[in-house]
Amino acid sequence: MKKCVITVVGKDTVGIIAKVCEYLAGANVNILDISQTIVDGYFNMMTIVDVTNCSKEVAVVSKELEEIGTSIGVAIHCQREEIFEKMHRL
Amino acid sequence: MINRYEVYETNQMIAEENLDVRTITLGISLLDCIDADLDKLNENIYNKITTVAKDLVKTGEEIEQEFGIPIVNKRISITPVALIGGAACKSPEDFVTIAKTLDKAAKEVGVNFIGGYSALVSKSMTKSDENLICSVPQALACTDRICSSINVGSTKTGINMDAVRLCGEIVKKTADATKENDSLGCAKLVVFCNAPDDNPFMAGAFLGVTEGDAVINVGVSGPGVVKHAIEQVRGKGFEELCETIKKTAFKVTRVGQLVAGEASKRLGIPFGIIDLSLAPTPAIGDSVAEILEEIGLERVGAPGTTAALAMLNDQVKKGGVMASSYVGGLSGAFIPVSEDKGMIDAVEMGALTIEKLEAMTCVCSVGLDMIAIPGKTSASTISGIIADEMAIGMVNQKTTAVRLIPVIGKDVGETAEFGGLLGYAPIIPVNEYDCSAFVNRKGRIPAPVHSFKN
């Protein structure tokens, strides 16, 4: 399984998760885990997704999610899971 | 499964502490390009580089986007050109045609530097070596992306003082040939002792003859990450300080290993080494000097600097070695002046001198790096400085290097501007007592007794 970690940080507003999930569904990306908190009005979400059957290249998904983030005023990063795994696990 | 804090930590390192992979350097052997006909040789070189490296930049950018980690430079290192051009080049001008070909190839594939306009002359020079060295000023003046290096000594061979003398003159001529740009050419010229075959960092990268046809070498960085980590152990003992540096170096190196593995897989080119280096940039918070100051020095250059740097260098290696399957290159903290904001400030306020920098080079990689000196400095004084630095490398069995910029038309109190990652540097005073009678002696300094290990 090829996994990615998506993080969303920014000022809370209506429909952030909806926008992200709608995009992921369209790209055939399956959500494995999702967690979200709001601290002092700041939205903070982390999602782990399966991109094995994704209809687009991961680099493209990452770029397009960034653009969605910009359009709704939050920072969205989509990164391959390995960068975290390699850094924090032996 | 990865947790929120780990994700946050990694992304904070990237976003706020300047964590990046400093360079993916593709080493390309040009040995199979050799031809006695100069035009054919140039054609072979251009074709080989533009074929092997055609996907390098694109692949680097894809990895950056997918993993969310900046890869600052994509570069190429090649077999030392003095070896490649030996059969075809009868004069320094012939070598300059190769420099132009390399520059054209670098621009075609989109890399920002190509290193290996080099000669390895640690014992003696062939006619070809001498022609290449003499062509360096012109080659660097008429190209944009070529980096040149000359290895003039090693622990095994001693120091080739004829080459040291010649290099002093070449540094001066290169400065003169590029004086309109604050003698920028000298920022792309390094003189080495014990130069490694697999160094991915410029300006000293070349692909040694012991290497294969093509190889991926990766240089990591992360001074800002180390500084942030040790801010958390302010006032604590050395044990805790060292552990913190090691753990951080481990994490940084693992990212480099991941990127190297991906690049190798996607390009179908074997992975060579990770160079474990703390490579600063002129950006605030990306400085080796600031780490030393965080360790407890008011300013880098204060008493204690050499000891603090020795410790830092050692801990970075200890942490990094376990994180990578192969380690090589220069591996250590870099202390360039113009590329490190903390170093620039320390020189400006008089805390850091060239003599202290020389002492610091005994305990870290690499040497007297990116130091602007008065343009009036004589060639023999530059040779003397090179000889001193080579002696440190030879006796301590380590790599040392000299990248001095005698800024033509400028003197102490003025500043040289190089731009981009090369930064800017206040001009540092140099001891002006004459050493020409020493430098003008012919021949070489013999290898030290402890090099005879057989």
Automatic annotation (TrEMBL), chain A:
UniProt xrefs under InterPro entries: ACT-like_dom_sf (IPR045865), ACT_dom (IPR002912), UPF0237/GcvR_regulator (IPR050990), UPF0237_ACT (IPR022986)
Signal peptide: none
Domain of life (superkingdom): Bacteria
Gene3D superfamilies referenced in this protein's UniProt entry, alphabetically: 3.30.70.260
Annotated ACT domain residues: 5-79
PROSITE patterns per record: ACT (PS51671)
NCBIfam families xref list: PRK00194.1
Family indicated by similarity: Belongs to the UPF0237 family.
The protein's name: UPF0237 protein ACIF0M_04730
Species: Dorea amylophila
From TrEMBL, chain B:
Species: Dorea longicatena
Cited SUPFAM superfamilies: PFL-like glycyl radical enzymes
The protein's assembly and partners: Homodimer.
Protein name as catalogued: UPF0210 protein DW641_09005
Pfam family, one: DUF711
Family: Belongs to the UPF0210 family.
InterPro entries: UPF0210
